[in-house]
Write a structure and sequence with these properties.
Length: 235
């Protein structure tokens, strides 16, 4: 059997320091921007011509899961976490070779001080994710409008209301200008309801927490609404 060593070509700088709250698919949280920084020896020459494409494929490693291995059967969140399907019939992050693939919008290519950054929108990566390949998205072959989506034929609902308490609004005002489009980012992440599937039908006043950038975002789910109660750098 042939073996092949894959070396990272880039590293991702994203607003998600931890797996919790990372969108389950790309493009669901459009307010999330990330920088894909090329690693030596890859430089601006390797992305020459890429700016002519609006979207790119990013092939990456689920690096935080590699040591945990994989299972032939998994429980997709779209099936409520109760039904099992084969790993190759899922988007599970626990895969035999630990590879993921996302389509994202390419906003710009920044070359400065010897660094080459691809600024993208709508990514679904933990900060520090290693990238192993980048390819242009070609609509005439990559888009398949008549494709069937199996048990995930349509996008999951993202309409869970998000309300900010007065104190949270004041905290956002104090942070204004320090983070790109922070209120919208928080709203879009919480509209996806990042809680575990088994929590979603429970009535509780539990305080949840997630990290965005270096911030601790705390919220409660009351009457099927997200109430953001605290935004700070205190953990």
């Amino acid at each position: 059997m042939m073996t092949h060593v894959i070396e990272p070509i880039a590293q991702i700088h994203s607003p998600y320091p931890e797996k919790f709250a990372v969108p389950r698919q790309p493009g669901l949280v459009t307010a999330a921007t990330a920088d894909i920084e090329l690693l030596p020896p890859f430089n601006a020459d390797t992305v020459r011509g890429l700016a002519g494409f609006s979207h790119i494929w990013v092939v990456f490693l689920f690096h935080q899961n590699l040591a945990q291995g994989w299972q032939p059967m998994v429980r997709p969140p779209r099936l409520g976490g109760n039904e099992k399907v084969g790993v190759f019939a899922s988007r599970s992050t626990f895969r035999p070779n630990g590879l993921g693939m996302s389509v994202v919008e390419l906003l710009e290519i920044v070359v400065h001080g010897g660094r080459t950054l691809l600024r993208v929108q709508g990514g679904d990566w933990v900060n520090g994710t290693p990238v192993v390949d980048i390819k242009p998205y070609l609509p005439y072959v990559d888009a398949v409008p008549e494709a069937r989506g199996g048990y995930a034929a349509s996008a999951p609902p993202a309409n869970m209301p998000v309300l900010f308490t007065e104190s949270a609004r004041q905290q956002l005002q104090q942070l204004k200008g320090q983070y790109r489009d922070l209120p919208t980012l928080i709203e879009q992440v919480l509209q996806q309801d990042p809680r575990p599937a088994y929590h979603k039908n429970k009535v509780s006043d539990k305080v949840y927490g997630m990290q965005l950038y270096d911030l601790n975002i705390q919220w409660q789910v009351l009457n099927q609404q997200n109430h953001v109660i605290n935004i700070s750098k205190d953990f």
